[in-house]
Amino acid sequence: TDMSQKMMQQMMNQTPVTTASSTSTSQSSSAATTGESKLAKYQKLVRRKQKDNANVVFVGGLRKTTEEDRVCAHFAKFGQVEDVDIKRLPDGTSRG
């Protein structure tokens, strides 16, 4: 989230370059609109990612022999566990 906040700040700090001519004024207003739409899309993406990851827990350092049911049973003490995904190597052993 720190990275997304920094990117959002950078996008908000960008200001369009304007000149005195009437044609470039209309172009700069469209550039400002484009920048605003990019910012809105980025903010929407960040909100969606935060919502998707709201209930995700990463657990590292598991033994190679740890199975999904053991992890589920351990965390069930704290609430409902919807899914356990242990990352595995092609040979089927846990990545740990």
How does this structure look, described?
- The chain is an all-alpha fold.
- It has helices spanning 2-13, 22-52, 68-75.
- It is elongated.
* Chain-averaged pLDDT: 75
Unreliable residue runs: 15-24
Write down the secondary-structure element order.
HHH
Major β-sheet, in short?
Answer: none
> End-to-end span in angstroms?
26 Å
Q: What's the total helix number?
A: 3
> What portion of residues is helical?
40-55%
Can you tag this structure with a few keywords?
96 residues, mainly alpha, elongated
Give a concise summary.
The chain is mainly α and 96 residues long. 53% of the residues lie in helices and 0% in strands.
SSE map:
Elements: H1 2-13, H2 22-52, H3 68-75
Helix pairs in contact: 1-2
